[in-house]
Specification:
The protein has 123 residues and is mainly α. It has one domain. 50% of the residues lie in helices and 0% in strands. The chain contains 7 helices and no strands. The protein has helices at 11-17, 22-36, 66-69, 72-82, 85-88, 94-107, 113-118. It is elongated, with a radius of gyration of 16 Å.
Length: 123
């Protein structure tokens, strides 16, 4: 498709052809779940009265059960809280949020979820 050699790295091809790797598709679908169901997620601001920089992030409950820690709800909260501020700020406008997230994922084709968590790049 891209006319590349057999040993060429695919990151640049993913960007060029605007194809999302599987991990980016997972992130995109989880964020669609979180944004479409915002009423079941709670932010940090009602939890405590301290005016902190993380008050607009989603609140993660402290549960020791591994079945909850591996669930899509907890993973969705962790991914949302790791989004760049320029994307997360658009959470109330679903269309703009999805477009900004898709643009971010196209410019940063992550091969693994851990790469996404370690990334500190913004748009």
């Amino acid at each position: 498709m891209g006319g590349a050699q057999s040993r060429t790295l695919c990151r640049s091809l993913f960007k060029q052809l605007e194809i999302l790797p599987v991990s980016c598709q997972y992130i995109l679908s989880l964020m669609k779940l979180v944004i479409n169901n915002q009423e079941i997620f709670q932010t940090n601001s009602p939890i405590h009265n301290i005016n902190s920089r993380n008050k607009h992030q989603l609140h993660r409950t402290n549960v020791n059960l591994s079945c909850f820690q591996k669930s899509i709800f907890d993973t969705g909260i962790k991914i949302f809280n790791s989004l760049p501020p320029s994307v997360a700020i658009l959470k109330n406008d679903r269309a703009k949020f999805k477009a900004a997230l898709r643009k971010y994922l196209h410019t940063h084709p992550f091969y693994a979820i851990n790469e996404f968590f370690m990334s500190k790049d913004d748009l």
